[in-house]
Automatic annotation (TrEMBL):
InterPro entries: ATP_synth_b/b'su_bac/chlpt, ATP_synthase_B_chain. It comes from the Bacteria. F-type ATPases have 2 components, F(1) - the catalytic core - and F(0) - the membrane proton channel. F(1) has five subunits: alpha(3), beta(3), gamma(1), delta(1), epsilon(1). F(0) has three main subunits: a(1), b(2) and c(10-14). The alpha and beta chains form an alternating ring which encloses part of the gamma chain. F(1) is attached to F(0) by a central stalk formed by the gamma and epsilon chains, while a peripheral stalk is formed by the delta and b chains. This is ATP synthase subunit b. The gene is atpF. Belongs to the ATPase B chain family. It is found in: Cell membrane; Endomembrane system. Component of the F(0) channel, it forms part of the peripheral stalk, linking F(1) to F(0). F(1)F(0) ATP synthase produces ATP from ADP in the presence of a proton or sodium gradient. F-type ATPases consist of two structural domains, F(1) containing the extramembraneous catalytic core and F(0) containing the membrane proton channel, linked together by a central stalk and a peripheral stalk. During catalysis, ATP synthesis in the catalytic domain of F(1) is coupled via a rotary mechanism of the central stalk subunits to proton translocation. Keywords: ATP synthesis, Cell membrane, CF(0), Coiled coil, Hydrogen ion transport, Ion transport, Membrane, Transmembrane, Transmembrane helix, Transport. It is a single-pass membrane protein. Pfam families: ATP-synt_B. One of its GO terms (cellular component) is endomembrane system.
C-alpha cells in the first residue's frame, strides 16, 4: 500500500488515473482513426500536388527555354530570308534599271532617226521649192533677156537649164 499511499500523497487516485488513462487511449485511437489519418492523407495529397506542380513548373521552364531557342532560330532564319529578299530585290532593280536604260536609248535612237528623216524630208521639200522658184526666176530672166514673150520661151529649155544647174551644185 505504499504505492497507494505514495500516489495518495501526491493527490492521485489510481482508479481515477486508470479511467482517465483508458479514456485518453480511447480518445487517442478515435482521434488517430478519424482525424490524424485523414489529416495525414490530406497533407500527403497536398504535398504530392505541390511536388507535381513544381515538376510541371520545371518542365514548363524547360519547354519555355526550348521554345525560346526555337523562336530565336526562327527569327534568325526570318532575318536571313529578309536579307536575301532585299538583295534579290536590289539585283532585280538593277536589272530593271538597265533594261529601262536600254529601252530609253533605243527610243532615243528611234527619235534621232525620225528627226533625221524629217530633216531630210524638209530639206528635199525646201530644195524642191527652191528649184521651182529658181525655175520661175530663170524663166523670167530668160524672158527678159531674150525680150520675147514669156509664152515663146520653151519650158523644156528652162527645165534643162535648171537640171544642169542642179548637177553643178
Amino acid at each position: 500500500m505504499e504505492e497507494a499511499g505514495l500516489l495518495g500523497q501526491l493527490g492521485i487516485n489510481w482508479k481515477l488515473f486508470l479511467s482517465q488513462a483508458f479514456n485518453f487511449f480511447i480518445l487517442l485511437i478515435v482521434l488517430r482513426a478519424f482525424v490524424y489519418k485523414p489529416l495525414l492523407e490530406i497533407i500527403k495529397k497536398r504535398n504530392f500536388k505541390i511536388k507535381e506542380g513544381l515538376e510541371k513548373a520545371e518542365e514548363a521552364d524547360i519547354r519555355l527555354k526550348e521554345v525560346d531557342v526555337i523562336a530565336k532560330d526562327k527569327i534568325k532564319l526570318a532575318e536571313n530570308q529578309s536579307v536575301e529578299i532585299i538583295k534579290s530585290t536590289e539585283q532585280k532593280a538593277k536589272v530593271l534599271d538597265l533594261q529601262i536604260q536600254a529601252r530609253a536609248e533605243e527610243k532615243q535612237k528611234e527619235i534621232n532617226e525620225l528627226l533625221k528623216q524629217s530633216a531630210l524630208k524638209q530639206k528635199e521639200e525646201s530644195e524642191s521649192q527652191v528649184y521651182s522658184q529658181a525655175l520661175e526666176l530663170v524663166k523670167k530672166i530668160v524672158a527678159k533677156t531674150v525680150e520675147l514673150k514669156p509664152e515663146a520661151v520653151d519650158a523644156k529649155l528652162i527645165e534643162k537649164a535648171v537640171i544642169e544647174v542642179k548637177k553643178s551644185t
